[in-house]
């Protein structure tokens, strides 16, 4: 396997972004540092990838081209993220090249490989590939990850634990002692961390949690999960996202159950669909518009970095919160004085 830029950075004792600038903007780092990086590259046989377009240090507002990779444009929360990023990118003089990987890690790999050396930087939103693989594929190109943690590059993370805590506390107050959780894609970083948080919080609040298997992050996926939710005996369910939650509402109705009288349903994302659904969907609000803006700002910072000491990758955590609507109610037979009737 050919040597990577990460290996060069480790051998030279510098950050990945500094090693990247040694090949893309050598005039913007100290000569001693540059010499160390070049020497490390020669020692391990690293050859820089396609030459990047030279940036003019006197014009930091030069327009740039950014590749944005998303898992599913049909998901409203992804569309919200893209729209906010594109609007802010225009202000930053960044032109976005948008690609939909259709939730496939293989397609992500192909897209990143194809665009490397042809764009100025990358934003990967909710990728299915591991963070380190994405860093390797992007090589010397500046990269920002959204909803995928990394200690190598900047990332923006929606901290759904805040919202999940509110959701479980709310359900517990309403008398729900058994709650189901419907997972999303097994390769999703968000899914992994939401499930871990839900397990921990359910235990804290003495709630029995039934975690169901992975499902497509669509209404069809939620519809398919509805029977499994009902079979658990749970009186409430939290779904991986709003689409899955709405599918569960539909599936429950097909099974003769009413929401929220027989089953309370909570989604995650708080998309526009949540407020127009019948019943209106209780959901955990995830600030993906803010994530879109921040991802552009972080990438802009990488593209315009001057010869200042690196402080390491920056991780931004965005809080979430529960928005209560019509799809949740007290558990069947619950007495507000604290006992079941």
Structural class by helix and strand composition: alpha/beta
**CATH fold node name of the domain at 159-286 and 322-330:** Rossmann fold
User: Separation of termini?
Assistant: 67 Å
Q: Which outline best applies?
A: elongated
- Any guess at the CATH architecture of the domain at 159-286 and 322-330? 3-Layer(aba) Sandwich
Instruction: Write out the strand line-up for the largest beta sheet, numbering strands in chain order.
Output: 2-1-3-4-5-11
Helix content: 40-55%
For the biggest sheet, the summary is: 6 strands, parallel
Comma- or semicolon-separated keywords:
341 residues; alpha/beta; 42% helix; elongated; six-stranded parallel sheet; 434 Repressor (Amino-terminal Domain)
Architecture overview:
With 341 residues, the protein is α/β, with parallel strands linked by helices. Among the domains are: 1-48, 434 Repressor (Amino-terminal Domain), CATH 1.10.260; 159-286 and 322-330, Response regulator (Rossmann fold), CATH 3.40.50. It has 12 helices and 14 strands. The protein has helices at 5-12, 16-24, 31-44, 76-91, 105-115, 131-138, 161-173, 189-204, 219-232, 242-254, 272-276, 288-303, and strands at residues 64-70, 94-100, 121-125, 143-146, 155-159, 178-183, 208-214, 236-239, 264-269, 282-285, 315-319, 321-323, 334-335, 339-340. The strands form 3 sheets. The protein has a 6-stranded parallel sheet, sandwiched between helices. It has a 6-stranded mixed sheet with strand order 7-6-8-9-10-12, with helices on both faces. Strands 13-14 form a two-stranded antiparallel sheet. A hairpin with a 3-residue loop joins strand 13 (334-335) and strand 14. Helix 4 packs parallel to helix 12 (288-303) and helix 7 runs parallel beside helix 8 (189-204). It is elongated and about 75 Å long. It starts with a helix and ends with a strand. The model is unreliable at 50-61 (pLDDT under 50). Pfam families: LacI, Peripla_BP_3. This is Transcriptional regulator, LacI family. Residues 3-57 form the HTH lacI-type domain. It comes from Krasilnikoviella flava. Keywords: DNA-binding, Transcription, Transcription regulation.
